[in-house]
Amino acid sequence: MDLDAVIRECLEGSQSAWETLVSTFAKRIFNMAYQFSGSRQEAEDKTQEVFLKLHGALPRYDSGKNFTAWLLTLTKNHLIDEYRRTKWEKTQRDDFDERVLAQTAHDGPEQSLVEKETKALVWEGLNRLSADMRMVIILRDLQGKSYEEVAEIFDLPLGTVKSRVNRARIQLAQVLKEYRGGTL
Amino acid sequence: MTCERIEELLSAYLEGELADAEKAEVAAHLAACPECAGLVELMKETSGAIVGFPEVEPSPDLMAGLYAIPAVRRERRRWFQPVFDYLTRPALQPVYAAFTVLFIALSFVFFHPEGRGIRKQIDVRLHRGIGTVEKLYAGAGTLKGEIGSLTTTVVKSFNNLDLLKSGEGKQ
Asked: Is B53–A142 a contact, with Cβ atoms under 8 angstroms apart?
């Protein structure tokens, strides 16, 4: 798919081009919002807002740049700004999604209860990280972005991003340790 | 190496990005430090758990909402565009210019270091103006009284005129 052509057609008002763009990126943005907020409802609202913003910002997109990184930067900024604006409301994440647990159960019968419990604790523990730390973990470990891509999205030097990812992983490990009552 | 220094290298160590010498140093430290070794195990666990989070599908309702965004924005523009056009028409430019000048003048009055003096002057002139108007009113009141008394005198004088009385007697 020629993304530049799709964007050009979007700018000309083509509905089918817009639907192509949405189909290509909706799942990624929705998952990013879900992993960040921990709430399905919240993720749906935020995804809607991000795409509304995208539609308004599309004329300002510089076609020479990496569109995916540009969209993820827009998403990251929106999620972090909104979180900071309303964080007092967001002390609790949804319970670790039953459907997700059901999906992971298909990985094999050898997956122990402890692993499932660890997943639930890590899911819950994401909320204990600051917005920036949570976002780098999501981009690097959940979305599978390279350090270079994360650096581009955050507009930070590569070394800073690597250090931030490392600190976020350590913090998450410490949260897990705390949840388990300090035992290693 | 200290534990703090080792912590800084843990992600690179787990991702196999360290040079051989550094890798050996970290491994030696981990073998001797149960605290750091425990942390590494926890990091491996959390990373394993995170990687195991599968992606979730957005609902059909959400997708329908996203597809409809251009139509929603068009509709919104349909309502706001006339107001925007009205407010930005060239005929209103002198009005905006006048308001700008007014705001600049007011900002001088309220925020200029000597604004207090300016406000005092305005107060004095305003009070002087009010005083003058009051005097005029008072003067007008006196004049009205004088005209009233003069009118009464004239009417009385006419009533007392012998000429009229005699005329009445003749008839």
From this structure: yes
Contact at 8 Å (CB) between A96 and A38? Answer: no
- In tens, the pLDDT along A9-67 reads 999 989 999 999 999 999 999 999 999 988 889 999 999 999 999 999 999 998 888 99
ipTM (interface pTM): 0.83
B3, B30, B1: which is closest to B14 by C-alpha? B30
Q: In chain A, which residues have their Cβ closer than 8 Å to the Cβ of B45?
A: 118, 173, 176
Residues of B in contact with A51 (CB under 8 A): 66, 69
Q: What value, to the nearest 5°, has the Cα angle with vertex A129 and ends A124 and A133? A: 125
- Give me B165's structure tokens: 């009385």
Instruction: Extract the tokens encoding B126.
Output: 């305003």
Q: Which residues of A108-146 are buried (b: 16+ CB within 10 A; e: fewer)?
A: eeeeeeebbebbbbbbbbbeebeeebbbbbbbbbbbebe
Query: Rg of chain B over CA atoms, in angstroms?
Result: 47
